[in-house]
Amino acid sequence: MSTSRSSTATDTPPTTLSAGGPSLLEVHDAVLLDLDGVVYVGPHAVPHAADSLTRAVGDGARLAFITNNASRPPSTVAAHLRELGVPAQDGDVVTSAQAAARHLQQRLDAGSRVLLIGGAGLAEALEAAGLTAVGSLADGPVAVVQGFSPDTSWARLAEATHAVRSGLWWVATNLDSTVPTPGGPAPGNGLLVQLVARAAGRDPDVVCGKPERALFDEAVARLGARRALVVGDRLDTDLQGARTAGLTGLLVLTGVTGVVELLAAAPAERPHLVGRDLRSLRDAHPGPVVERGEDELVVRCRDAAVRIGAGGASVVAAAAGPDGLDLLRAAAEAVWQARDAGLERDWRVDASVLVEPVVRSLPADTPAAVDEVGEGVGDGL
User: Fold this and answer.
1) Of these residues, 34, 236, 283, 323, which one is catalytic?
2) Would residue 139 show up in a list of annotated catalytic residues for this protein?
3) How many domains in the chain?
4) Measured between alpha carbons, how far is 107 from 128 in angstroms, rounded to an integer?
5) What is the pLDDT of residues 170-194, one digit of tens each?
6) What is the extent of the structural domain holding 186?
7) Marked catalytic residue, from 11, 36, 326, 340
8) Of 4, 17, 42, 298, which residue is the least packed, with the fewest Cβ within 10 Å?
């Protein structure tokens, strides 16, 4: 085996995780928050969420609550947030229904008729955008918009299919495959859109919900933000959406993403920052440092360190750091660096050996540490 060497500044790979501090609220002027799994889980607030957001507003941050849920009007969502002690006005809630209506408003003449396949939230958004919602192809619509509603019937899906097959511009609010219910995940808007797409023989012309950028653009424009931060718990909607929109993404460990999912994250879904919960808005976030040698790479995050090389993957230093996440940060960056460079295959690295020590290092109240990651998937995001 050759002797490993330290990297120079010219051959040190760029990191995916970045540094943020001394406090994220000093760097970002607006915070775009996912809901289910970040601010609340069903009827209950996530621990520390209400206090953290109240302090953030006191520090001058502007908040937007962005959700793929197109069925509920923003006023309903905001009222629920206020019941939980979260500072939220109706205008702070940005839904995929509003993003879809904004898209149609920009494309169509004022008062244009749009075939509505969805619920009250989507109908309200169309009206606010100066468009006319209709229920039948016979009413002469010039476009179709489809969002989730638990009352969507076969007859409504058939009407949508006929309209789409006729060539009308077709906008889907989102493609979430599931919606959370008390009994577990149930079919969401994405599956209903798939039914229409298969019957009509084509896909929607535009999708406005996460991870597409339209929803983020709507929130940024509404707040007039220049340095917005996206906070989410789900990689394939919140964090992929942040990267798509060119915004910084913070993953919090209070929802669906745990250690295994984070280590396995595809490049387009990786967060820039990782935090325990919304208290991490006031934290300094350390950036990992990569030391690449001929037969190994070592990633350090403050006093935590992970090695990946020909002998496999191992924890060099298990220091958790002030917020308990430094070993997780080092492990995630090490696995991503090895995978992206093709080293994981060459060195036959099994990243799963890092999961147990990383989980042990997390704060005891982190959902990922007790294997109790929530069900916050689908249209409730």
Assistant:
1) 34
2) no
3) 3
4) 15
5) 999 999 888 766 676 789 999 999 9
6) 97-207
7) 36
8) 42
